[in-house]
User: Fold this.
Amino acid sequence: MKNVELKKQLVEIGKKIADKGLVVGPGGNISARVDNIVYMKASGICFEEAKESDYIGVDLKTGDIVDGSKKPTCEIAMHLGCYLERNDVSAVIHTHPSIATAVGMQDVTLSPFTPDLAALAGNVPTIKYVVPGGKELAEEIRKVIKKHSSVLMCNHGLLTVGSNLREAYYRTLLIEDACKTFVVAKSLGRMKFFTKKQAEQINNMKAESYRKMLLKEEKHK
Ligand SMILES: [Zn+2]
Assistant:
């Protein structure tokens, strides 16, 4: 995929994120990688207003700007850390969805309780609150992303990764939706997570492998 096309995709997904109310104002950020260049939204820009020129390219290893002139997000280390930790990651979506943020304060690991959650997200751990924008947050995220595709951030929001933007985006939507179900189930009085065996059954189903493959189809590199 060419860099120009990737910037178009970033604009599109950014608008969807704003439409779905997954962030308000200039909060949150998304990024995607082509080889050793990571494109991300410039600092202080709102998703609904972001144009292609608002997505700037930085060098994966040094963080130096290689395409564009605006200032990168203050969360640049958090984004780059995910790509440096995992070669199979080509997109990172960080949002502030209201229900997932509330669940992030409960100090829980959101383990699967529906087939969709088992197939597309697996366990979603929570990290403690860390001041945004620094190396410490980047390190905490990196530790979780090593083994998981998504992480709830206490008093902050949600981060998901994917092999492309679509996969990371649908993961974000799915987790916010699952968090709604979690809150309602808890308020009704009973929450039932899948057993390890139930989660494994889903991951061994051919139909689920096919659905997962469709989301992964479009690689950025
Ligand atoms: Zn944030």
